[in-house]
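BUG-284 | component: ligand-complex export | severity: low

The export step for 4'-deoxy-4'-aminopyridoxal-5'-phosphate jobs runs without errors, but we want the raw record kept on the ticket for reference. Input record follows.
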Amino acid sequence: MSTRVWINGTFFDKHDAKISVYDHGLLYGDGVFEGIRIYAGKVFKHAEHIDRLFDSAKSIALRIPLTPAEVIAAVEATVAENKKVDGYIRLIVTRGPGTLGLDPRKCEPQIIVIVDDISLYPKELYENGLEIITASTIRNHPNAVNPRVKSLNYLNNIMAKIEAIRAGCLEAIMLNHNGEVAECTGDNLFIVKKGVLKTPPIDAGILEGITRNFVIGLTKQLDIPFQEASLTRHDVYIADEMFLTGTAAEVISVTKVDDRIIGTGKQGPITRQLRERFQKLVRE
Ligand code: PMP
């Protein structure tokens, strides 16, 4: 069966799922989105994703033409239509079709729900860890578009991703405008030093990741000392363990950064513990 895509209340087969070339989502990256997982037939952290979508939209003065409950129902209907038990949802709100100018006032917002599969990193990388670099492209300044807004405009993250790929890596650390560690191109970042788990605070200019928040919640259950702390590249290089979190990546160890081996060069014990607990809980 072909993937069925929901656009403004109607299902279309994947190949017929089309939007206007005048949509400002395409012309200007003007819109917001969410990436969400389906585990064992359930939409993971659905309410949290819808909250973040509405916050992102509000921040860019984009009116979502449905209530949060209606968006939740649209997502559930698309999951059911595609009979997905494990998969990935891409929920998108674009500013919609307008004129060729920037002015959004004539645009009619569009809502799109795609339910498909997600390819995670290769399985062995979860054991052996990722090698990543620090990109020279910085995360956007909070007074431009705040990184808390999950907007369709990912260009600086894509520039950093291209740097990673050129260096033979799959991810890159992005620094903020103060030179502090912010996050990766599509994942949040954590380190462990002397038994304490640390991650940059939201005001380091990061997306407030749903997986990040879930992992922070696990530290209380597992009695792992945790703090939000501003981090430099030095802190990363001398960390005992490092891992990334994200909807697609889940919890994945990082064992090399800018050619420095992190810790023992293998997935560390706290990373393993958090990953295992994460894997168990998402399916409960
Ligand atoms: N940072 C960025 C820039 C992201 O795009 C994402 C989502 N892929 C994340 C962090 C992780 O957020 P979440 O756990 O909500 O997927």
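Assignee comment: Attached the raw record above. The chain has a mean pLDDT of 97.
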